Amino acid sequence: MYFHSRAQQRRFCLQIILGSAAIFAASFFLGEKVSTTDAAVEGGRVSNSIASGASSFINTRFLRFSNFNAQSDPKTTASRTTKSTVTIYLARDEKQHDIFNFAHSVFKTDILQRYGSGRLQYLIREQAACNLDCKIDEPVLQHEPCLAVTRSSKIMGCDIEHLKCNYPQCKTMVTNDELCNKIDLPFDAREYYTSEMPHLGYLPLGPRMDYWLSFQKIQESHQFFIVPSSKRKYSFNAIFSQNTNNARKSLADNIDNNRHTSKLPIFTRMAKEWTHEVDIAENEQLGTDEYMGALLDSIFTISPAGHSPECFRIFEAVEAGSIPVLSYDDMHGISRPNPNNRKDLRNVEHPCKNPLRHWYGAPIVVLDSWSDLYPTLDSLLKDPLALDEMQVKLRMWYNDYMQKSVQKFEDFVLDSSSSVAKEVAFEQ
Q: Which of 52, 213, 322, 388 is the most exposed place for a label (fewest CB within 10 A)?
């Protein structure tokens, strides 16, 4: 190329350098590969326009859902030459009907894949048999690693003796044990946490499957991204059934009594009773799409304890970028439903000791009591930038927590012993 002066040559070289740097920066945020040759050709055009668009581009990219997703973490996306296959048997008594168990959602969503190390792949065997005569018909049952899972219920469960008999080479896990009625049985792992059994394998609930499917559908919309707290429509949402815990009834009354005097825009659906009925209009409950839409558009999500303080809603809120709000008693497991009457709340310890211990120190809101709900949120809402920062910190904390939990669970499954003998405390 011919230049009329050295000044023109210097300007051209500077444009190439700036263009290369600009496209390299853009490719870093976009995760796309751009060659320096292309940068040289486009250098003149890009160097003139990149500065004006950089600020808005970075802000938009920062808020896109992929930046909130654990898939962006190199530890979860690093390629693996070989993977171990773990077979998970969701066992049920052969007389049971084909009823889906929500507590098995963690095996049906992509939680294990998103937050795992990438060294395992999972083969999920739904409605696996739990034969009372313990006949083992499949050779695969003799192979490790594998996990046999049953629920804490006579409706869909397989008792521990039959589970071990049917799946002798597998680790065992109990789900649905919200009140820790089964901690005295020799299961190797649990779904609901208790500090009484820190040596057991543990896998967090994660989002409930039906809500997660709605969330995935919403994400497929064009240019979906997690809206920052300061740009959301609702100050908080309160979506729960009142009959699972008396404290929820008091909370619902508090919200109803303040809704006419408070200026906070809120979304509520506080059904009198929880039911399996499909007719949403009759049971006052939300459809899954509307529920996830409310979480995605709420700064805060009210999360009162039901049968247990550890519930799907906490995970669903954080996945949607909404900050959970809990009470001190729920957070520390001080109050619980009466085991003889779950609707009767007593000021005693929950049978699952410290059920939310892993959430201590998380950037969420913990109220001294539900009567502090409106004053506390009123104060927090005065600083929109601080709310945005809290939202980002929560997502970072959550990614770290879920990665540690899932990868520790991988270690548990791969352990060659039939049960976990070593007591390894979770390191926050």
A: 52
Q: Tell which residue, 149, 110, 117, 152, has the closest CA to residue 130.
A: 149
Per DSSP, the three-state class of 137 is coil
Q: Determine the Cα–Cα distance for residues 243 and 263; give it in Å rounded to an integer.
A: 28
Looking at residues 382-386, what average pLDDT do you find?
Answer: 97
* Count of CB atoms situated within 10 Å of the CB of 394: 21
Tokens of 84: 């171990």
Residues contacting 410, CB < 8 A, separation 6+: 116, 117, 119, 120
Window from 196-210, 211-225, 236-250, 269-283 with minimum mean pLDDT: 269-283
Tell whether 94 is covered by a domain.
yes
Same domain, 119 and 160: yes
Could you list the residue range(s) of the whole structural domain that residue 378 is in? 209-382
Whether 23 is in a domain gets the answer no
How far is the C-alpha of 336 from the C-alpha of 197, rounded, in Å? 19
Angle at 190 between CA 107 and CA 249, to 5 degrees: 90
Q: Is the peptide bond before 145 cis (omega within 30 degrees of 0)?
A: yes
Evaluate if residue 399 carries a pLDDT over 60: yes
Beta bridge partners of 93: 130
